[in-house]
Amino acid sequence: MCSKLESRTSRNVVIIGHSGVGKSSLINMLCPSADAPVSNDVFGCTTTERAYLCDLGRQQSCMVHDTIGLEEGSWGFLWAPKAERRLKSYLKKSKPHLVVYCMPGVRRYLKKSYGRSFNKFKSMAGKVPIVVVVNHLEDSRHSEDWWSANLDVLRKIGIPESTQHACVTTLPEVDFMYEIYGSSKRGIYDSSREAVKALIMNNLPQY
Ligand SMILES: Nc1nc2c(ncn2[C@@H]2O[C@H](COP(=O)(O)OP(=O)(O)O)[C@@H](O)[C@H]2O)c(=O)[nH]1
Ligand SMILES: [Mg+2]
């Protein structure tokens, strides 16, 4: 039989999303000792799924699972249909309690296919809740308001506005940069970490 702590750490949170959106960066933000490989290359650098222990605070923890990106195109580590099949089978195998869908909230990166993948994996996840982390918002004046300010965009790509979410940055250098410039946005990386942990905590089943 599992102890209370073991049963808590055995709650699985699987991070999914397209290649290069920042899934591994999100893992590194949540688990500072993870050192998950991160890269801006067109060829995805996460070549295998891996789970890391995440301390959620208040004596709660979970395992966060890094996954291979969807739709890298023909140049990527895995051809799109193969990547999708692999993620599907990983979702079955890892028995998630929560799925986190990661996507960037800036115009130059946002694509309609992000909404299609979200809905595909939402129906695949069945009863397992799926939440969204919108990242790349370090330059946005009001990152926490991104969701309400972009309801028309969400509608266009087909993500329901009622979806639980956090709007953040997962770029680690950002606090250092804002510290140097004495910007009012310093501390944004730490507050992003807290926002995502709160999102996970509020949507994970409690034991
Ligand atoms: N500007 C910005 N870049 C980010 C953010 N999150 C990740 N990146 C960068 O995006 C690139 C891809 O990140 P990675 O975590 O490897 O993406 P993955 O393929 O989804 O795992 C890296 O160069 C990261 O530094 C973010 O919130 N803002
Ligand atoms: Mg990765």
Describe, in plain words, how this protein is organized in 3D.
The protein contains eight helices and six strands. It has one domain: 3-Layer(aba) Sandwich (Rossmann fold), CATH 3.40.50. It is globular and about 45 Å long. The longest helix has 16 residues, at 188-203. Strand 4 (98-104), helix 4 and strand 5 form a beta-alpha-beta unit. It has a six-stranded mixed sheet, sandwiched between helices. Mean pLDDT is 86; it is low at 1-7. It has helices at 4-9, 23-30, 80-94, 112-125, 146-149, 151-157, 174-180, 188-203, and strands at residues 12-16, 50-57, 60-66, 98-104, 130-135, 165-167. By secondary structure, the protein is an alpha/beta fold. Helices cover 37% and strands 17% of the residues. The protein binds guanosine-5'-diphosphate and magnesium ion (MG). Residues 17, 19-25, 38-40, 44, 46, 69, 135-136, 138, 169-171 line the site of guanosine-5'-diphosphate. Magnesium ion binds next to helix 2. Keywords: Hydrolase. It comes from Suillus fuscotomentosus. Pfam families: MMR_HSR1.
How many domains, in number, for the residues? 1
Q: Span between N and C termini? A: 14 Å
| Gyration radius over CA | 16 Å
Q: Find the CATH superfamily.
A: P-loop containing nucleotide triphosphate hydrolases
Average pLDDT level: 86
Computed structural class: alpha/beta
Helices, by number, come to 8
Please bin the fraction of helical residues: 25-40%
CATH architecture: 3-Layer(aba) Sandwich
The distinct ligands, each listed once, are: guanosine-5'-diphosphate, magnesium ion
Beta strand %: 15-25%
Order of helices and strands: HEHEEHEHEHHEHH
User: Which fold name corresponds to the CATH topology?
Assistant: Rossmann fold
The CATH top-level class label: Alpha Beta
Number of strands: 6
Major sheet characteristics: 6 strands, mixed
Low-confidence stretches: 1-7
Question: What spatial order of strands do you see in the largest sheet?
Answer: 2-3-1-4-5-6
| Inertia-based shape | globular
